[in-house]
Description:
Layout: H1 4-18, E1 24-26, H2 33-39, E2 43-50, E3 53-59, E4 66-70, E5 76-80, E6 89-94, E7 99-103, E8 107-111, H3 113-121, H4 133-145, H5 150-153, H6 165-174, H7 188-205, H8 217-220, E9 251-255, E10 258-262
Antiparallel strand pairs: 1-6, 2-3, 3-4, 4-8, 5-7, 6-7, 9-10
Amino acid sequence: MPEGHVIHRLARDINTAFSGGAVQVRSPQGRFAAEAARLDGSELVAARAHGKHLFVEFDVPLPERFVYVHLGLIGSWRFEPPHEQWGQIRLQIANATVAANLRGPQFCRLLDADAVAGIVGKLGADPLLPFDPHTYAAVEAKVKRSRRSIGSLLMDQKLFPGVGNIYRAETLFRLGISPFTPGFHVKLRPIWDDLVLLMDQGVESGRIDTVRPEHTPEAMGRAPRKDDHGGEVYVYRRAGQPCYVCGTPIAMQVMEGRNLFWCPSCQE
Length: 268
């Protein structure tokens, strides 16, 4: 499932391509055809992300003017030539030069402002949104009261929307925190600050790189990482391989249905 930086980057790219202009809105697959017809020819106001949720607003004289998309496990948006029609395109937003084609999402719905507010209201503090001290304080208070492990808490989208398995594993490694530490034993602010740093970098680069300069392939004289997710990381999907810092084999176990990676020595 794409992590939050992918959705924020996508919102940025949709705004760059279409914001402020009239667009064609279609559903070549047909499953969103009635909703698309209500938006076709209107102006795209703006796209915005909150965690892994994307909302695209259109200027139409209707309460239902927000397209809500959650990519889920297999969904994707691709920017392609307007004539591109391969695969099952649930939603296409296009102008004369480019089309944003949505395939395989978990959700694609047309909502009004109240429904959007209801979804956003259930989410916690997104590291990629402007810092809101009240939202952050509420999340911090919940973490401080919790006996759940910090590895579990960081995957809770009601607390940290947009944070996924890679950022969870990598931030905890970078700070030397065991993923099994109960929330009430953790200082949240260093974790938050590192998430903001890494996820901002992810929006800009379009990939997840978490290693510090001294642990890059060039600095260590090692081969670049080869993985579908790309990026240079410390522990994610490196089970059994030596830690770049101490040499201990990286450990892996399932936590709440997701593979958890950590260094048993660096994260005691």
